[in-house]
Amino acid sequence: MRKKAIELQKELEKIVETVEKRGWTVSVTGDQKIRYIKRDGEDLNDLVEAINEAMKKVQKESAKKMMEMGGGLSGLLGGMK
Questions:
Q1: What is the pLDDT of residue 81?
Q2: Could you tell me if residue 72 is left (phi over 0), alpha (psi between -120 and 50 degrees) or otherwise beta?
Q3: Which helix H or strand E contains 73, and what residues bound it?
């Protein structure tokens, strides 16, 4: 199960979507990490780092809450293995 999770994580990292709107360009990976944000071609690396750090913290806290509420995904899936 762990091996499959690692493989899935690697596949998600390969997915990239980039959107341009009104001078803004945002690129995000399938594992929900921001690759870059640009405004009229200017990189906003500090903003990217801050957002990714906040996302990591909230994902960690969310995972902790899920574990407290019934053992994570196994609880949601009725104990399927």
A1: 47
A2: left
A3: helix 73-76
The separation between CA 65 and the C-alpha centre of its own chain, rounded to angstroms, equals 17
Mean pLDDT for the stretch of residues 25-47: 95
Residue 47 near residue 37 (C-beta atoms within 8 A): yes
Distances, alpha carbon 18 to alpha carbons 23, 24, 48, 70, 77, in Å: 13, 10, 14, 36, 33
Using CA atoms, how far apart are residues 12 and 4, in angstroms rounded to an integer? 12
DSSP annotation of 71 reads S
pLDDT band for position 78 (cuts 50, 70, 90): low
- pLDDT category at 66 given cuts 50, 70, 90 is confident
